[in-house]
Design brief:
Blueprint: E1 13-19, H1 27-30, H2 32-45, E2 49-55, E3 59-65, H3 73-90, E4 104-107, H4 111-127, H5 142-147
Length: 167
């Protein structure tokens, strides 16, 4: 087995991509209530600041700021993934593996890097042809950024330009 090494920075900010085992699944959006419960559960166990998130049918991206001195983002991810799986298997209707074993992680290395990843997260539904405008995707922290006055409702319009990272 190949030894996989992750980068750890105490109190770091991480861009994470988590993907379902079945890339044609829609579980993340059709089971959004369970998704929210699992996310809340992981945040209670491993407190951190969720700076941005987008949930698509079969994958999600997030910017996660760890508390000062903490290194536990893999435990946060494991807690979230296992709780979501538990909630879906609880009813007995699912009996298969839900998540890909691995996930993508990138430690943010400055303000420009953070901004690039924030934009990537918010425009991801347009990139994947879920909607033609960022504002039309309901499962995104974009709406919080608009409500706080940090972004305009028509930010990026329908620009599907691609980033060079993630998935």
């Amino acid at each position: 087995m190949v030894a996989y090494r992750r980068f750890y920075q105490a109190g770091g900010c991480y861009f994470l991509t988590l993907t379902l085992a079945n890339r044609h699944s829609t579980l993340l959006t059709t089971c959004i209530s369970e998704f929210k419960l699992a996310l809340r559960y992981a945040l209670e166990r491993y407190p951190c600041h969720l700076q941005a998130i987008v949930v698509l049918p079969e994958h999600l991206h997030m910017l996660l700021q760890l508390p000062q001195g903490q290194l536990y983002y893999p435990k946060f991810v494991q807690s979230f993934k296992s709780r979501f799986s538990f909630l879906l298997h609880q009813g007995g209707s699912l009996n298969h593996k839900i998540w890909q074993d691995r996930y993508w992680e990138h430690c943010i290395r400055g303000e420009a890097d953070w901004l690039q990843h924030l934009e990537y997260i918010h425009r991801n539904p347009v990139k994947h042809h879920q909607v033609s405008q960022v504002k039309n995707w309901p499962y995104s922290s974009f709406h919080r950024y608009v409500a706080e006055g940090w972004l305009d409702e028509n930010w990026l319009g329908d620009d599907p330009s691609d980033g060079l990272f993630g998935e």
